[in-house]
Amino acid sequence: MSSSENPExxxxxxxxxxxxxxxxxxxxxxxxxxxxxxxxDIGEKIEETIGFGKPTADVAAIHIPRINLKTAEIxxxxxxxxxxxxxxxxxxxxxxxxxxxxxxxxxxxxxxxTIHAHGSQTVKIPVNLVYDDIKTTYHDIKPGSIIPYKxxxxxxxxxxxxxxxTIPLEKTGEIPIPYKPDIDLEKIHFERFSFEETVAVLKxxxxxxxxxxxxxxxxxxDLTLSDVNIGGAELEKSAKLEKNGISYIDLPxxxxxxxxxxxxxxxxxxxxxxxxxxxxxxxxxxxxPMKLPISKEGGTTRLKKNKEDGGDDDEDED
Length: 318
Prior knowledge:
The chain has helices spanning 7-50, 131-137, 263-268, and strands at 56-67, 71-82, 88-99, 102-115, 119-130, 146-159, 163-176, 182-192, 198-208, 214-225, 228-241, 245-255, 273-285, 288-304. It has 318 residues and is of the alpha+beta class. The strands form 3 sheets. A 7-stranded mixed beta sheet has the order 11-10-13-14-8-9-12. A 4-stranded antiparallel beta sheet has the order 4-3-6-7, with no helix packed on it. A 3-stranded antiparallel beta sheet has the order 1-2-5. Helix content is 18%, strand content 56%. The protein is built from 3 helices and 14 strands. InterPro entries: Lea14-like, LEA_2, WHy-dom. Residues 1-27, 289-318 are annotated as: Disordered.
């Protein structure tokens, strides 16, 4: 009787083949483990001998060097420390800025430089937030508001022995969506009146529509009365414009009434005088200095004289 006719012999042959395969796999697996362990031991010995180690990083600071109604420039300072005896390349920097889990901006900076051996280096990551993009994407973000943000940064470095390493970093903060103030020239108060030269004070009303205070440092303006440009000035002026509040400032001005022609008589009689005004205010904010535009077209104001000139004072005008 042949072996194929004996089930016990066939089963024994199959078992012997399986045992041979299992033994072969164990031998191969054991060999690979030995090789892996050997390489790891060599790496550890090299690390101990030469002093290789993993670099560290931290977000040292976040700056807003420039901010206006259109954009905010943000610079993230990341301090990277390299404990190794050789320079290590900073291969890529991935960054993401989000607010309440919503993406505002992301990007990649390739080939970001080299970190010196046994040294530290501050890597600057510049990003530019465009407010129109944010307001178009997220309609609930209103001008004048302050929004929270989170910056996520992944530094990818190449270190001998360790290979490529990703160092994740995070930092949170707040950033404003600035809004320009509303202005109104409530009245022009004559200090000294003559047809050749008149010295007056502009009583300017400023409404700060932002959720943060503005510290006024200076103002520049150009004024037109009754379609006659009477010039302007750039003045240093200190005042606190409280958030969501109204403030008043006085601006001195000198002009020649004779340039107004027949419109002068309407002005002297105290009738409403049309005006337009434009300029800028330079302010300090909790987020850094800003230069904000001010403008008013088609406004109406009043001219008032001092009592000694035969006119009304501020208390008699309303």
